[in-house]
Design a protein that fits this description.
alpha/beta, 2 domains, nine-stranded mixed beta sheet, 5 helices
Length: 330
């Protein structure tokens, strides 16, 4: 059973479930350990060596085409009925006849556009807009999006996959939990507030007490020596570090405590790192934001986003670093 510490934030296991977000109350936090050049910190190799570790184009309706302009009733492409006698029309030169015929064909094509029969050949179709995600998302180059729509301390989480120009829902749960004090602006969030930061963040790596569940993300199986540094005064703030490497107090208590990840086998069975406050890490903004499993009591977190284990496992097997995945909270 995880006991809330007298710190700003604890492990994700808030209450019976860990508080996640910074090193504060209970809950699994992200680990910058194995980074491999991804957003949160550095690479797995760097982590193991003690070094640093672990964003719609608005659719535009194409203007009238040149052909449409040329065939506007005030132009020269259309001849109004009765404007010329049949005798004058028959007396046209071959060139004039060809010009009139071309104008009639063009007018027919334009009429087709206006009447909805389809765009003229060669017309540029308007770009396909991004779907109406339930929360604001800075999509950027992402081909995978995880949206987190909070309602109090609960949230609906949807995993979206881009297929061609279409975004498809892959996994959904309404049983997710966020910070015990809800959500707050990620740009001004403070450590110890038990809030989940809003905004769009990359997802760069995974870790867990258990073995890799089949994710393509860089993954580190934690040991008893692995800590998530949550001491704001440490040079290694908001990253994973081994005990023997030093540079932070080996305690989970107080304002300078950190999180010993192996102590939370339920919440941190498997987890994904949310790249919040790590490039650079601003002291006191919060450390260790993860997408992890619900705790034993399925309670709120200290800032992390928690999912039912079965959903989390599916998401971890689906997520792909090559798709530049992001998570958006709102």
């Amino acid at each position: 059973m995880i006991i809330l510490r007298n710190r700003q934030e604890s492990f994700c296991p808030f209450g019976l479930f860990g508080l996640s977000s910074d090193r504060g109350s209970a809950s699994p936090h992200a680990w910058p350990g194995a980074r491999a050049g991804l957003p949160r910190s550095a690479s797995v190799a760097e982590y193991q060596n003690g070094g640093p570790q672990v964003e719609r184009a608005p659719g535009t309706v194409p203007p009238y085409s040149d052909a449409m302009a040329r065939t506007h009733p005030t132009g020269t492409g259309l001849v109004s009925p009765g404007s010329r006698s049949r005798r004058h029309a028959d007396a046209r030169s071959p060139r004039a006849a060809r010009t009139a015929a071309a104008g009639a064909v063009t007018a027919w094509a334009v009429a087709g556009i206006l009447l909805g029969s389809g765009p003229a050949q060669g017309a540029t179709p308007p770009p396909v807009p991004a779907p109406h995600f339930p929360v604001p998302v800075m999509v950027g180059t992402a081909g995978q999006v995880i949206s987190v729509q909070a309602r109090g301390t609960y949230a609906t989480v949807i995993a979206w996959q881009k297929t061609g120009a279409i975004w498809v829902k892959r996994y959904t749960t309404t049983a997710a939990r966020v910070g015990s004090h809800g959500i707050t602006d990620g740009a001004t969030r403070k450590q110890g507030t038990y809030t989940t930061p809003t905004g769009t963040y990359t997802v760069s790596q995974g870790f867990g007490v258990a073995a890799n569940p089949g994710t393509k993300m860089p993954y580190h199986q934690v040991t008893a020596a692995d800590w998530w540094v949550e001491d704001p005064d440490s040079a290694y703030y908001n990253r994973m570090r081994r005990a023997e490497q030093g540079g932070f107090p080996l305690t989970e208590k107080g304002d300078h405590g950190s999180e010993r990840l192996v102590n939370y086998p339920v919440q941190y069975r498997n987890a994904l790192v949310i790249d919040f406050n790590n490039r650079p890490a601003v002291k006191g903004r919060g450390a260790g934001m993860f997408l992890h499993a619900l705790g034993p009591a399925a309670g709120p977190t200290a800032g992390c986003v928690a999912l039912p284990q079965a959903v989390l496992t599916s998401v971890m097997r689906w997520i792909d670093p090559a798709q530049h995945p992001v998570i958006a909270v709102g």
